[in-house]
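Protocol step 4 of 6: record predicted structures for both targets in the notebook before any analysis. Target 1:
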Amino acid sequence: MSALPLLIEFWNKGIKVRVEGSELALTAPRGVLTPCLVSRVKNEKSALMVSLDKIRKKAGDDWVEVSNDPAQLKAFADLLAVSEMRERGIVPDHYTATTECKHCGLVPIFEGCPSKINGCPWCFNRLKGLPIPRAPHCEDYDDE
C-alpha cells in the first residue's frame, strides 16, 4: 500500500519526514504532531519508507535538493500518487475532460488536452495489460 497521501498530508502540515538508517525521523511545528499522527506513522512505517524511497529514486541526482524542500517533495509525491492511481485504472480527480486516443479510444484526461491524440497516459496501462477507464460517450447522455 502506498503512503504517498499520508506523506502529502504531513508536508501540508509542515511535518518533515526522513529516513535515518532503518528508522523514520519526523520534525514538526509545535503542537502539530498529535498522538494520532504518531500512531499513524508507527502503523504505516514500512509503507512510508517505501514511498520515500520511490520519491528518492525518481528525484535521482537531485535528491539532496528535493529532500530539503517540502514543496518539491510534495510535487514528487503528487506525481507518484497520480501514476499509482492510473496504474490501478483509477481516474485522477483532475482528469475532468476526455480525448480520443489513437490507441486507447475515448478516455478521461486532464483539461486542455486536444480532443484527438496519438498517445495518452493510459497507453502505458494498455502496453502493460493494466486497466484503462473509458470516458462516457456523449450519446449516452442525449435526451430521447
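Target 2:
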Amino acid sequence: MDLADVVFVDHFLMFQYLPEACRGRVVLHQHNAEYVMWQRFAALEKRPLHKLAVWMEARRVRNYEFRIGNKADAILAAPNDIEALVALGLPRDKFILTLHLGDESLLDLPDIEFSRTACRLLYVGSLGWEANRDGLIWFLRYVWPELKRSHVDLTLTIIGPQAGQQLTLVAEKLEGVELLGFVDDLEPYYERSRVFIAPIRFGSGIKVKVVNALYRGIPVSSTSIGVEGLDVQPGRDLFVADDVGTMVEHIGILLTDKARWTQMRDACRTLMREKYTWRETLDRLEEALNG
C-alpha cells in the first residue's frame, strides 16, 4: 500500500482501513456529509435520552469527518455535502464536485402517459435506512389521511426491502397502502403510477430514488431534504414541501391536472438529460484520480 500512487477511499466508513504507511495520493469519496444526517435525526428525536445519544453520535461523526478530510488529498462530494464539509473548516480547494446518479438508461424509455397511469402514488427505496422509514411513517400518519379524504380511490405502493415492524404495522392499518418488499422489475410500477413521493425528513447527499424518478419522468413530490444537491426548480421540475398541507395540495394537483402533470414530466426529463448524465461525473472522477 505504501507503493500505491493513488488510493481511492469509497465513503468515510472505509477510511479506517487506510494504512498509516500509505504515501500515495488519497482520494476520498464522501457519499454524504454524515454528521448532517445525525444532526437532523437528533433534531427530530423527541425522547430526551435518545436525543442526547444521537447528538453525541453527530458530534463524534463530525469530528471524524473533519479528521479524515484533512488527511485526504482530494474529496469528491455532492454540492450540498461540499458546503456542509467546508463548514467544518476543511479547505474548499480540496473538493471536486461529484453527483450520485442512478439508472441513466431510464431516459431512453418512452414517456409515461397520464391516461395510462392509475390514481396511485409510488415510493421506491431501501427501507432498512432509518431516514426512509421515518419519512414514510410521517407521510402515512399525516399526509395520507388528508389525501384519502379527497381521493378515495387513491393507492400507495411502497417498494423496498426491510420495512421493519413499525412501518409494517402503520401501513397494514391503512386502506390502499401496499408494502411489496423487493421487486425485480420496477418498470410496470413506474408506468402505472401518477406521482412519486420522497417524504424524507433527515439525511444528506443526493437521493438516488429521486434521480431515478426524474429520469423516468414521474412527477415527484418531495421534501426540501429529498432534493438537496439537485439544481431543480420547484413547481417546474417537481414539487417541494415540508408541511402536510402544501404536500397534500401538490399531490392533489398532480393527481387531477393532466396539463400540469405533463408539463412536469417533460421538464424533469429535459433537466436530467441536460445536467445529470454519467459522462460528466466520470470525467470529474478521472480528474480526481489523476490529480
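Step 5 preliminary note on target 2. Residues 48-71 form the longest helix (24 residues). The mean pLDDT is 94.
Proceed to step 6 after PI sign-off.
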